[in-house]
Write a structure and sequence with these properties.
Helix 1 packs parallel to helix 2, helix 3 packs parallel to helix 4 and helix 4 packs parallel to helix 5. The protein starts with 7 loop residues before the first strand and ends in a 6-residue tail after the last strand. By secondary structure, the protein is an alpha/beta fold. Strand 4, helix 4 and strand 5 form a beta-alpha-beta unit. The chain has a 7-stranded parallel beta sheet, with helices on both faces. The protein has one domain: Rossmann fold (3-Layer(aba) Sandwich), CATH 3.40.50. The chain contains 8 helices and 7 strands, in the order E-H-E-H-E-H-E-H-E-H-E-H-H-H-E. It binds NADP nicotinamide-adenine-dinucleotide phosphate. NADP nicotinamide-adenine-dinucleotide phosphate binds next to helix 1, strand 2, helix 4 and helix 6.
């Protein structure tokens, strides 16, 4: 049984998709959650998590901006007192073949998918190191391992996340802080809704378990890595991909 009662978590990019599901599963297991997103909209995500009986607060924040993140993390520490879990989940795509990819689309994807994980990890690292415990879980992707045409920005950012994860795991291990990555395959969210039906059909055929995954499949893996049961796991990349990456 995963028990996160009394733990406080920060989840980035959490007003929808996989980030919202992660927040809900952490909350179902007892954790309080700080939701960070570029915009909080009608705050329905916060209400959904709060309805699970935990404290949930939302913070509007571009997680790739170090000055903004530093201020917001100070506020979170003042609101929650202590942070135990950081989930670097925010991510975007701007797919194109490299000959057509604009420089700004390369930079935007690297900023949100990779730089933001560095920025948020750095902002909470002294706190976790001082507490001599903590969990950092970074969102990689199967496309940072296998890679594919049209995603040089996304694939580079997710391969970078794996490097960041392994390097940080080595740095934090002596202080009881674990750092792992989850690498989803194709998951039913707004990100994959953009794909053409024939592309989705092709992936379903290629996936050994013959279907796309659900955000909950990814969230369950994150909750496990955040738990005491995963205390001896660090520097790992856990694939949640229906066998596609095998
Ligand atoms: P999503 O539905 O597009 O949600 C991403 C969230 O991140 C959105 O709420 C978005 O805000 C927010 N965001 C974007 N830029 C931000 C910024 N600068 N600061 C703060 N928040 C920001 O994506 P998802 O499918 O749930 O994916 C979540 C993570 O899983 C990403 O890292 C993605 O690369 C990874 N992943 C997804 C899949 C998949 O199949 N879906 C597969 C492998 C990996 P807006 O709503 O304003 O855009």
């Amino acid at each position: 049984m995963i028990d996160l009662k009394g733990k406080n978590a920060i989840v980035t990019g959490a007003t929808r998709g996989i980030g919202l599901e992660i927040s809900k599963v952490l909350a179902e297991n007892g954790a309080n959650v700080a939701i960070l997103d570029i915009q909080l909209g009608d705050a329905s995500s916060i209400k959904e998590v709060e309805a699970l009986g935990v404290t949930c607060k939302g913070y509007a924040c571009d997680v790739s901006n170090p000055e903004v993140v530093e201020e917001v993390f100070k506020q979170i520490l003042s609101d929650f007192g202590k942070i135990d879990i950081l989930v670097n989940n925010a991510g975007i795509t701007r797919d194109n073949l490299i000959v057509r990819m604009k420089q700004e689309d390369f930079d935007a994807v690297l900023n949100v998918n990779l730089r933001a994980a560095f920025v948020c990890t750095k902002a909470i690292s002294s706190h976790l190191l001082r507490n001599r415990s903590g969990r950092i879980i970074n969102m990689a992707s199967i496309n940072g391992i296998r890679c594919q045409a049209g995603q040089s920005n996304y694939a580079a950012s997710k391969a970078g996340i794996i490097g960041l994860t392994k390097s940080n795991a080595m740095e934090f291990a002596a202080r009881g802080v674990t750092v792992n990555a989850v690498a989803p395959g194709f998951i039913k969210t707004a990100m994959t809704d953009k794909l053409a039906p024939e592309v989705i059909a092709k992936y379903k055929e290629a996936i050994p378990l013959k279907d796309l995954g659900n955000p909950r499949d990814v969230a369950n893996a994150v909750a496990f890595l955040a738990s005491n049961e995963a205390a001896y796991i660090t520097g790992q990349v856990l694939g949640v991909d229906g066998g596609l990456g095998s």
